[in-house]
Specification:
Shape: globular
Number of helices: 3
CATH topology: Nuclear Transport Factor 2, Chain: A
Number of domains: 1
Order of helices and strands: HHHEEEE
Strand content: 25-35%
Largest sheet: 4 strands, antiparallel
Helix content: 10-25%
Strand order of the largest sheet: 1-2-3-4
CATH architecture: Roll
Oligomer: single chain
Distance between the termini: 25 Å
Bound molecules: zinc ion
Structural class: alpha+beta
Mean pLDDT: 92
Number of strands: 4
């Protein structure tokens, strides 16, 4: 990942829009999640959520732990090297004062199985830093047919792409 690669979180100009169009230009990593990974405070709960998704993609273990609320922060490794992430879609985000909720869908493949994670994450702002607190998540296994659009988001048929 270089600062001018498209950011894995898929953010385009105009943060906060819940619909990502494939036509709109994806922000560069250096203008999107990288500054947060280097220590800049996230401007919103959604920006923090995107940077955490991005950190899972890039395996930034220390950032994931640091951006986790101390009350709920796990001890051990949180990245799983066998998981590959294919895209993030923010469905809603709201903030009230020091707390925020972001609902999203993310597609990933682990141990040869395609899955979608749907989660509403709760964030708390503490000392000017948003941190992930907890979330309600559910997972759905995908079983793409050969002629279905590939779950990786390439726009190709599954059989011609990742099958
Ligand atoms: Zn980003
Ligand atoms: Zn594919």
């Amino acid at each position: 990942m270089t600062p001018d690669s498209p950011c894995p979180c898929g953010s385009s100009q105009g943060h906060g829009s819940s619909h990502r169009s494939f036509d709109s230009a994806v922000l560069d990593y250096g203008h999107c999640c990288q500054p947060l990974h280097l220590g800049q405070p996230a401007a919103s709960a959604e920006a923090l959520m995107r940077s955490r998704y991005c950190a899972y993609v890039l395996g930034l273990e220390a950032y994931l732990l640091e951006s986790w609320h101390p009350e709920t922060r796990p001890v051990g490794p949180v990245c799983d090297a066998s998981t590959r992430w294919y895209g993030l879609k923010i469905e809603s985000s709201e903030e009230q004062g020091e707390s925020g909720t972001v609902c999203f869908r993310a597609t990933f493949r682990a141990h040869g199985r395609w899955q979608t994670l749907h989660e509403c994450s709760h964030f708390v702002k503490q000392d000017d830093h948003w941190r992930y607190h907890d979330g309600e998540a559910d997972w759905q296994q995908l079983q793409p047919g050969r002629n279905d659009p590939c779950p990786c988001g390439s726009g190709e048929k599954f059989k011609k792409c990742c099958a």
